[in-house]
């Protein structure tokens, strides 16, 4: 058994297709298939059920894959220790970030990263919360920025800042005449919300006690906050924005923003890493740059804000 074989079975588990897994590992399909077969012969068990299409892990194979992920992360940390020793703030990392955070945070952060950490190359990838956590488990990202606590025992949260949810309302609506939005009244309007699985949506649904309304004439699958904003500006429905998105608006569009009445729903933004990740100086440096990029009021939970 060697690390290369563990990388191969991890790739096959991810893609569930020999050709795609081989392409990802930059080897031929026969090479990948042969190496996995040799590992199965050595262990005396089948890791994958090839009779199923797409292929899936066997019951024992799932346990082997979970342990392989741990081993590969630990092996990578040996390399990270060397990188930390040579130059703590240099190298390349991959950072997962939520689609509801990236467009509003990264334009603020990137200039500071270039100035404060010029020898660090960050590959950003937009992922939902569940995808960020899985990528951290597998070691395909080294850090992630999410809008909740990770909770899994193998992950470590590094709090960054707190961000309110804001309403975005059309000019011809009753809400436009109000100074605040009351959560109990939100459900009577046509709401443009992200798909299920986005924590931005899930947190709002819980806070406002919303339920799916099959009578709504229009719904939009796989929408973005920017798309929903355009709908609202055209007089159609209501949507919600994170606080940093409001910071980017001009005065005309900011006039459509309404805060919630007390308590105001607020999400905590965290930098999350695997507990095995050893580059602590780099974690602290990245967190420091991020917190320096947001308004100081957002660094602490304010009176009247309710963490959701």
From TrEMBL:
Keyword Transcription regulation listed: yes
Keyword DNA-binding: yes
Pfam families named among the record's database cross-references: HTH_1, LysR_substrate
Matches recorded under InterPro entries: HTH-type_LysR_regulators, LysR_HTH_N, LysR_subst-bd, WH-like_DNA-bd_sf, WH_DNA-bd_sf
Record family assignment: Belongs to the LysR transcriptional regulatory family.
PANTHER family in alphabetical order: HTH-TYPE TRANSCRIPTIONAL REGULATOR YBHD, LYSR-FAMILY TRANSCRIPTIONAL REGULATOR
Protein name: LysR substrate-binding domain protein
């Amino acid at each position: 058994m060697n690390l290369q074989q563990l990388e191969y079975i991890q790739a096959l588990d991810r893609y569930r297709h020999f050709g795609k897994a081989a392409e990802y590992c930059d080897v031929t399909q026969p090479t990948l298939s042969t190496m996995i077969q040799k590992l199965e012969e050595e262990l005396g068990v089948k890791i994958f059920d090839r009779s199923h299409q797409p292929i899936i892990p066997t019951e024992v194979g799932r346990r082997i894959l979970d342990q392989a992920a741990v081993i590969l992360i630990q092996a990578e940390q040996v390399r990270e220790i060397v990188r930390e020793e040579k130059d703590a703030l240099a190298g390349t990392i991959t950072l997962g970030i939520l689609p509801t955070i990236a467009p509003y945070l990264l334009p603020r952060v990137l200039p500071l990263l270039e100035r404060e950490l010029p020898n660090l190359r960050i590959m950003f990838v937009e992922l939902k919360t569940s995808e960020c956590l899985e990528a951290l488990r597998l070691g395909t990202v080294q850090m992630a920025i999410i809008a909740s606590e990770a909770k899994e025992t193998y992950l470590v949260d590094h709090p960054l800042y707190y961000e309110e949810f804001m309403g975005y309302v059309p000019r011809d609506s009753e809400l436009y005449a109000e100074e605040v939005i009351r959560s109990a009244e939100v459900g009577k309007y046509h709401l443009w919300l992200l798909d299920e699985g986005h924590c931005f949506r899930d947190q709002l649904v819980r806070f406002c006690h919303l339920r799916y309304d099959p009578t709504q004439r229009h719904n939009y699958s796989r929408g973005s906050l920017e798309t929903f904003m355009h709908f609202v500006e055209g007089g159609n429905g209501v949507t919600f924005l994170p606080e940093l998105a409001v910071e980017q608006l001009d005065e005309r569009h900011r006039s459509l923003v309404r805060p919630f009445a007390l308590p105001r729903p607020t999400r905590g933004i965290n930098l999350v890493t695997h507990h095995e990740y050893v580059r602590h100086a780099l974690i602290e440096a990245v967190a420091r740059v991020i917190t320096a990029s947001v308004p100081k009021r957002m660094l602490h939970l304010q009176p009247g804000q309710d963490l959701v």
